[in-house]
Fold this sequence. Notes:
Layout: H1 9-21, H2 29-40, H3 45-55, H4 59-68, E1 80-85, H5 88-92, H6 95-106, E2 119-124, E3 136-138, E4 141-143, H7 148-159
Family: Belongs to the complex I 24 kDa subunit family.
Organism: Sorangium cellulosum So0157-2
GO molecular function: 2 iron, 2 sulfur cluster binding; metal ion binding; NADH dehydrogenase activity
Amino acid sequence: MTDKFALSPDRQTEFEKxxxxxxxxxxxxxxxLHLCQSQEGWVSERVLRWVAxxxxxxxxxVQGVATFYTLFNKQPVGKHQVWVCRTLSCALNGADxxxxxxxxxxxxxxxxxxxxxxxxxxxxxxLASCGTAPMMQVDRDYHEGLTxxxxxxxxxxxxx
Length: 160
């Protein structure tokens, strides 16, 4: 792999659209990082350097943005990301059991990726679905009112 990052032609077009939407390049940092992550799956050092160069920002600034937000993957992740909410509503309604069940089923702990690269398991402080606790987010989809049986069905679909 080359040390130089480049966007695909389609994403380069999207990059130009992003720049046109923002009054200055610093304001475009988060959407540009999302765009790069959508291509790479994570925000690597070479992505950080590329974004900084393209936006005319110090690399330290871009790195600060990328490390502040949990939305950005700081290392390679699985094909699917499973986030188990652990905030009060979820915790009181069984989030710990859901998390431990996921860990046992996947053979990993929160923060790890399965050996086959299919699933990365994470915890989240709040996924804003307190009324349907416990819940988890799989990629961009919410799964609410979880039972261990529902968790099994979700994990079965992900690991096939």
